[in-house]
Specification:
With 90 residues, the protein is of the alpha+beta class. The chain contains 1 helix and 3 strands, in the order H-E-E-E. Helix content is 27%, strand content 26%. A 3-stranded antiparallel sheet has the order 1-2-3, with no helix packed on it.
Length: 90
């Protein structure tokens, strides 16, 4: 009986760890950056979706080249020129 309880506890902890890791892998942040747009050849400011653990931007949520800024209709070529997110150590 004690072995069964120990296995049940280990199994439950494993499930909690897997669920937590899956939830954190989808966490993102928004970072605002100013740059020269490769599509419009203008200086713009855009908000990029980035993973909190680093890596390249995954999406554009706002861009000053468009009115309204959320109506982005370009091919989002800026995603290919943005450097990966920088982790800040505190």
């Amino acid at each position: 009986m004690e072995t069964f309880i120990a296995i049940l506890i280990v199994f439950t902890l494993a499930l909690v760890l897997i669920a937590t890791a899956g939830a954190f892998s989808r966490v993102s942040r928004t970072a605002s950056r100013s740059f020269r747009c490769p599509c419009t050849n203008r200086d713009v400011t855009a908000d990029f979706e980035e993973g909190v653990w680093g890596g390249p931007p995954t999406g554009v949520s706002r861009c000053s080249a468009f009115e309204p800024a959320t109506a982005i209709t370009c091919g989002r070529h800026c995603l290919g020129i943005m450097p990966p997110a920088v982790s800040v150590q505190t």
